[in-house]
Amino acid sequence: MSLLTLKDIKVEFKTRDGIVQPLNGVSFELEAGEILGLVGETGSGKSVTAQAVMGLLPFLDGRVSSGEISFMGRDMLSLSEPEYQQLRGNQISLISQNPMTSLDPVYRVGHQIVEGLQLHTDLSREQARERAVNVMSSLGIPNSEKVFHQFPHQLSGGLKQRIVIAMGLCADPRLLIADEPTTALDVTVQAQIVELFRQTVEKMDLGLIMITHDLGVIANLCDRVAVMYAGNLVEIGDVKSVFARPGHPYTKALLNCIPVLNMEADSLKAIPGNVPSVRTYPKGCRYHPRCPDAGPLCRKIPPEIIRTDPGSRVLCHQFSPQWRKTL
Question: 112 Cβ partners below 8 Å, 6+ apart?
Fold first, then answer.
């Protein structure tokens, strides 16, 4: 049994202009001890996927309109809000992109970790304090006792991010979702945080969903990668296989945007156009207006997900029998 399973998830939001659907049939599985990377441009649906798993959509005038979400064999979509509150921060933790949005500037960081621990566990305040300091030390935070009593503004960006990770890990979650956790960090600190996530997953045998724009982070950290575009999961598979043999034209385009040593000055290629608005998704394949390989079929009919290599799936007409008939 997988730790987390999403089957054909569709999400709706209420807006002033009516109902919009930012997720359209997203499916994937995550095992304990596995790291799955979610990658794609802004507006692809990565964060909405995380919000659906966390049960946060009702607070944003949204809902899962169809599909299934299962966590440790439990149907998540049947849970009431009080039941979800028992899972958030306990069995499932979310690490946000900007640590300053997660840390209250008027409270010492230790107080904030202890407060979360006492909310989700039966530990006394002294036990929670000891647990917090131990977790901070295990995350490589120097002088953890001293940092415990400091305010967020007294810490560097890397230390603040480690504190947020400590807040997420203190209650021993089974699933950790990290939403762009390295975006605001310099390269050296980013590498340290990536290594920290790897060690944490190995030590605690938890599942990690890493949401990022950075394909370098995906390559260095993740076991599998799921590529998202305009609310669709367009490709998923083993990181090494996807990077070596990308199937979807969008995945190929993303990889062509990565600079490498000794490349010619004009060989770095940008993807033309932009991700379409959730209100103006094109007919047929949502990527076809930007795709150099698009054919008549792509402009008329939405593609179906097709299994390619074992464990890999691609949402593209080029892998379907219908495509070969149009050639």
Answer: 103, 104, 163, 167
- Report the alpha-carbon distance of residue 239 to residue 22 in Å, rounded: 25
71-84: average pLDDT: 93
Q: Per-residue pLDDT tens for 221-279?
A: 999 999 999 999 999 999 999 999 999 999 999 998 877 767 676 667 788 888 999 98
Q: Look at residue 63 in the predicted model and tell me its pLDDT.
A: 95
Q: In what order do the strands lie in the sheet with 4-15?
A: 18-30, 4-15, 62-71, 74-75
Domain span at residue 235 reads 4-91+173-279
Q: Answer yes or no: is 100 within a domain.
A: no
Whether 217 maps to a domain, the answer reads: yes
pTM metric for this prediction = 0.91
Q: pLDDT for 152-192, tens place per residue?
A: 999 988 888 889 888 888 888 999 999 888 776 778 878 88
* Angstrom distance (rounded) from CA 306 to CA 316: 8
What is the CATH number for 253? 3.40.50.300
d(CA 85, CA 78): 13
The answer to whether the Cα torsion of 212, 165, 91, 12 is positive or negative is negative
Give the residues across from 224 on adjacent strands: 36, 238
What does the angle CA 108 – CA 109 – CA 111 come to, to the nearest 5 degrees? Answer: 70
CA dihedral 67→227→57→304, nearest 10 degrees, is: -30
Burial of 294: CB neighbours in 10 Å, binned 0-12, 13-18, 19+: middle
